[in-house]
Design goal:
With 302 residues, the protein is of the alpha/beta class. It has two domains: 132 residues, Aspartate/ornithine carbamoyltransferase (Rossmann fold), CATH 3.40.50; 155 residues, Aspartate/ornithine carbamoyltransferase (Rossmann fold, 3-Layer(aba) Sandwich). The protein has nine helices and nine strands. It has a five-stranded parallel beta sheet with strand order 7-6-5-8-9, covered by helices on one side. A four-stranded parallel beta sheet has the order 2-1-3-4, with helices on both faces. The longest helix has 19 residues. The mean pLDDT is 97. Bound molecules: phosphoric acid mono(formamide)ester.
Length: 302
């Protein structure tokens, strides 16, 4: 992993994924260490973010690293017409590792091919969000005691939801049973379904949410990704497809946890927040430990 970019979750083997999760456990026990105090992390967010950017920055600072960067393309020289390649080549002069979010699918791969320092993909368009995937896996393992043989239910925008794409691919290592709930227009892309088939695993597709909840160990809710729709009218048709309420969890398995990469809009009612099954805010907290593990591994400090 040392000096290796993380662009897609498929860049890591199952053993490498497990290693990051195990390291994250040790950072959860002791998050403040000075192991990156001579390192500079660049945080380049061309697209909005709350959790990913701030948890990366918190993770880096708790390990003693300095953080530079920008939180919007509007405050960078992209506004003056600078290319992504020139931005990456420039920022690599100032940093040891670049964390980048961008709206274009494939931009992180392109950045990793031109960058002399490792790139961590913090989300590229509707494609991949591998660090969210690692914190999702960490949250699943922590709450279920295992990653193997679980019933995982994905709900919402499975077409444009990059967190779903990354997590589905990673769960193919763990004999998962997939339950895919979405509007017809927002089904999981064929390329991602092909991963499930190649792993010789099963998936079922549904449009209704309630009927599937009793079958699930993890209920992974997602936002309908308004910003990815080419036509706003199409978004209007599906924007209120799902609304999970507390009463809908009455027949859930006792071990069920509700995850969500956040931000949520209206797909989880706030009455769910008080349920012991709600785990989305703890999930966001786990992002700090997983990102500490990842940066420490890539920078060769663990
Ligand atoms: N989960 C996630 O990527 O959230 P942000 O968009 O706030 O970073």
């Amino acid at each position: 992993m040392k000096n290796k970019s993380l662009v897609s979750i498929n860049d890591y083997t199952k053993d490498e994924i497990i290693r990051i999760l195990d390291l994250a456990e040790s950072f959860e026990r002791q998050p403040r260490q000075d192991i990156l105090k001579d390192k500079v992390i660049a945080s380049l967010f061309f697209e909005p973010s709350t959790r990913t950017r701030l948890s990366f920055e918190s993770a880096a600072q708790q390990l003693g690293a300095s953080v530079i960067g920008f939180s919007s393309a509007a405050t960078s020289s992209v506004q003056k017409g600078e290319t992504l390649k020139d931005t990456i080549l420039t920022v690599s002069n100032y940093s040891d590792l670049i964390v980048m979010r961008h709206s274009v699918d494939g931009s992180a791969r392109w950045a990793s091919e031109v960058s002399p320092v490792p790139i961590i993909n913090a989300g590229d368009g509707a494609n991949q969000h591998p660090t969210q995937c690692l914190l999702d896996l960490y949250s699943i393992r922590k709450t279920q005691g295992t990653l193997d043989n679980l019933d995982i239910m994905f709900v919402g925008d499975l077409k444009y939801g990059r967190t779903v794409h990354s997590l589905t691919m990673a769960l193919c290592h763990f004999n998962t049973r997939f339950h895919l709930v979405s509007p017809v227009e927002l089904k999981l892309p064929s390329a991602v379904k092909q991963h499930i088939k190649s792993a010789k695993l099963q998936y079922e597709q549904y449009t209704e949410l309630s009927e599937v909840i009793p079958k699930a160990d993890i209920l992974y809710m997602t936002r309908i990704q308004r910003e990815r729709f080419p036509d706003p009218i199409e978004y209007e048709k599906v924007k209120n497809s799902y609304n999970l309420t507390l009463s809908m969890l009455e027949n859930a398995r006792p071990n069920l946890k509700v995850l969500h990469p956040l931000p949520r809009v209206n797909e989880i009612n706030t009455d769910v927040d008080s349920s012991p099954m709600a785990y989305y805010f703890q999930q966001a907290q786990n992002g700090v430990y997983v990102r500490q593990a990842l940066m420490a591994a890539i920078l060769g400090r663990v």
